[in-house]
Design a protein that fits this description.
Number of domains: 1
Oligomer: single chain
Number of helices: 12
Distance between the termini: 20 Å
CATH topology: Rossmann fold
CATH class: Alpha Beta
Number of strands: 13
Shape: globular
CATH superfamily: NAD(P)-binding Rossmann-like Domain
Order of helices and strands: HEHEHEHEHHEHEEHEEEHEEHEHH
Low-confidence stretches: none
Strand order of the largest sheet: 3-2-1-4-5-6-11
C-alpha cells in the first residue's frame, strides 16, 4: 500500500504516537488500516468479534509490534469490551459491520443490531471517554465511520453526490445510513467531531472469497483462477465504481486527520469511474489468462443497486483526497495475492 510522499508526511504528523481504535480491525479493510497506521507511527487498539474474520494477519502484527498493537476480542454490542478498546484512543475508526446486502436480506435484525445499535455503542463509549463533566472533547478527538454508497439506492442520477436524497433498498443500506445520522446527532448533541466516508465497492488483497456473500471481485477471482465461469446476478449491465482498498484506507486516514472540525459530514470515496459487470468479467478473465470463460447469468438479487459512480469532489476539497490507485492497478494486486494464496493452500 503506497501513498504519495507528501501525503504520508502529512498523515504521519497527525498519527505518530497517537492511539487509534479500529473496530473490525481483524477484517479485510481493517487489516489494511492497521498496516497503514503502523507505518505512520500510531499505537493501535483493535476490537473484533472474529465472526467474519480471523486473527491470521493481525496476529503477525501483534508478534512484531506487541507494544503498538492491542487486540480486544469482543463485540461492539458489548459495552465493557468497547470501553476497553477505546481507552486512551484519540481517534476511532469504526469499520465493524455486517457488510453484506444479501446477508441483511436473510437476517435484517442482526444487520441492524450490529450496524446501527453497534454504532450507538461506539459513540457512547467515545462520549464517556472524551466528554468529561459533560463538556465537549477538548482536543482533536474524532470518530470516522465507514459508511456505504448503498445509501443512494436506485436513484438514477449519476454521479452520486452527497446532497442526493437517500433511497436505501436493503436493511444493510438502511442500517449504514442510520449510522451516519447517529454520528451527526452525537456531534450536534455532545460536540464530538465525526465524519462518514461513503465507500464505493471496496476491493483488494485479503478480501474473503469463500462465502455465499462474497463481493464481486473476490468471487470472480476465485472462479476464474480455478478455471470456472464467474457468476453474475442480473443481466451484467449494472455498473460499479470499484475502489481499491488503498484508496479507501487513504480517505479514511485523511478524514481522521482533517484539521477542520467535522460534525458528521459525509464524503463519497470512489474513483469517479465505473465499469459494468460484463466488462469487468471480461477484463478479469483476460488478466487470469482465461478469456474464453464467459460469465453465467443468474436472477438478480433483492436489494442490489443498478449503478454507482462517485462524485468525490467534497472529499477532494475538504479532506485532500484523490484516488492513488486505478481499477487495473488494484486488480493486478488482488489477483497476484490470490495466486499466491492458491500456490500456498491450493485455493484462493
Amino acid at each position: 500500500m503506497k501513498f504519495p510522499a507528501d501525503t504520508v508526511e502529512r498523515l504521519r504528523r497527525h498519527y505518530d504516537g497517537r492511539t487509534v481504535c479500529v473496530t473490525g480491525g481483524a477484517g479485510f479493510i481493517g487489516g489494511h488500516m492497521v498496516d497503514a497506521l503502523l507505518s505512520l507511527g500510531a499505537v493501535i487498539s483493535v476490537i473484533d468479534d472474529l465472526s467474519s474474520s480471523t486473527l491470521d494477519h493481525l496476529a503477525g502484527l501483534i508478534e512484531l509490534e506487541p507494544e503498538r498493537v492491542r487486540f480486544v476480542h469482543g463485540s461492539i454490542l458489548d459495552d465493557a469490551a468497547v470501553a476497553d478498546a477505546v481507552e486512551d484512543a484519540t481517534t476511532i475508526i469504526h469499520l465493524a459491520a455486517i457488510g453484506s446486502v444479501p446477508r441483511s436480506i436473510v437476517d435484517p435484525q442482526r444487520s441492524w443490531s450490529v450496524n446501527a445499535t453497534g454504532t450507538v455503542r461506539i459513540m457512547e463509549a467515545a462520549r464517556h471517554e472524551w466528554c468529561k463533566d459533560g463538556k465537549p472533547p477538548a482536543g482533536k478527538e474524532r470518530v470516522v465511520l465507514a459508511a456505504s454508497s448503498a445509501a443512494y439506492g436506485d436513484d438514477p442520477a449519476l454521479p452520486k453526490v452527497e446532497t442526493q436524497y437517500p433511497r436505501p433498498l436493503s436493511p444493510y443500506a438502511a442500517s449504514k445510513l442510520a449510522g451516519e445520522h447517529i454520528l451527526a446527532s452525537w456531534a450536534a448533541s455532545f460536540g464530538i467531531s465525526t465524519a462518514c466516508v461513503r465507500f464505493f465497492n471496496v476491493f483488494g488483497p485479503r478480501q474473503p472469497a469463500d462465502s455465499a456473500y462474497a463481493a464481486v471481485i473476490p468471487a470472480f477471482s476465485k472462479k476464474l483462477l480455478n478455471g470456472e465461469a464467474p457468476v453474475i446476478f442480473g443481466d451484467g449491465k449494472q455498473s460499479r465504481d470499484f475502489t481499491s482498498v488503498t484508496n479507501a484506507v487513504l480517505a479514511t486516514l485523511l478524514a481522521g486527520a482533517c484539521e477542520r472540525k467535522l460534525v458528521g459530514e459525509v464524503f463519497n470515496i470512489g474513483t469517479g469511474n465505473r465499469i459494468d459487470l460484463l466488462d469487468l468479467a471480461a477484463l478479469m478473465a483476460e488478466l487470469c489468462g482465461v478469456p474464453h470463460l464467459k460469465p453465467e447469468l443468474r436472477p438478480a438479487r433483492v436489494g442490489d443497486v443498478p449503478h454507482s459512480l462517485a462524485d468525490f469532489s467534497r472529499a477532494r476539497d475538504i479532506l485532500g483526497y484523490k484516488p492513488v490507485e486505478t481499477l487495473r492497478d488494484g486488480l493486478d494486486e488482488t489477483l497476484a495475492w490470490a495466486r499466491r494464496e492458491m500456490a500456498g493452500t491450493g485455493k484462493p
